[in-house]
Write a structure and sequence with these properties.
By secondary structure, the protein is of the alpha+beta class. Strands 1, 2, 3, 4, 5, 6, 7, 8 and 9 form a 9-stranded antiparallel sheet that branches. Helix 4 crosses helix 5.
């Protein structure tokens, strides 16, 4: 299908963008018994398909009074204990999670006509786990975490940020260790639900959701 042409003003109406979804669908028989195994399968397939940054996920949070916000962060671990990511505790998302420790994740694997939606509670990772990951990061990323100490706050200019980075590089040269910031660390989202979405023809998409019960994971098909 050819892309729509711009109008007289040189703009494209998003309502004119259409794509047909084809594929084998997602039958219940194809699913693993638990969402963690199923996610590992799909994540591996996304990596093998060459998707750019397949670990990019939209993290949605809400403040204590229910004001929502969303942003893209990177998944840095997954398993039967949940989904792990790292960030600044003083950022907007960090403050949201402190006041309202529940969140949702969306993995938008558009080229594969797939997405995964995770929702559940969020808890901080132990400091030793945060430190281990922090010191595995490139030197510049470690300094960057310190330079953005007041993440989400207003700053005067790009030069102000770069100046802070330069001063930190003198304080902690690459030849020595960079300490773990006290305002930075990891989180784990422990899911209550995990939905696997596969695009289907005529918008008859497959939506299969794992829902945690007291003793097991219940698989439910949702209307598209």
């Amino acid at each position: 299908m050819e892309p729509p042409k711009p109008d007289q003003a040189g703009l494209i109406d998003p309502a004119d963008l259409r794509a047909a979804y084809e594929g084998d669908g997602l039958p219940e028989s194809a699913l693993a018994a638990d969402p963690f195994t199923q996610f590992a399968r799909w994540f591996t397939e996304a990596v093998e398909a060459g998707l750019p940054e397949p670990n990019a996920m939209v993290l949605s949070t809400a403040s204590a009074d229910g004001e929502p916000s969303a942003r893209t962060v990177l998944l840095k671990g997954h398993g039967s204990d949940g989904f792990r990511f790292f960030t600044n505790h003083t950022s907007r998302k960090g403050q949201d999670l402190l006041a309202n420790p529940r969140a949702s994740l969306v993995f938008p694997w558009h080229p594969m006509r797939r997405q995964v939606v995770v929702a559940g509670s969020v808890e901080r990772l132990p400091e030793d786990e945060s430190a281990a990951y922090f010191h595995s990061r490139p030197y510049g990323s470690q300094l960057g975490a310190w330079a953005s100490e007041h993440q989400s706050s207003v700053i005067g200019s790009r030069e102000e940020l770069e100046g802070r980075f330069a001063r930190l590089s003198q304080k902690w040269p690459e030849s020595g260790p960079v300490p773990l910031p006290g305002f930075w660390g990891g989180y784990r989202l422990v899911p209550a639900t995990v939905e696997f979405w596969q695009g289907g023809h005529d918008r008859l998409h497959d939506r299969l959701r794992y829902r945690r019960t007291d003793s097991e994971w219940l698989i439910e098909r949702l209307s598209p």
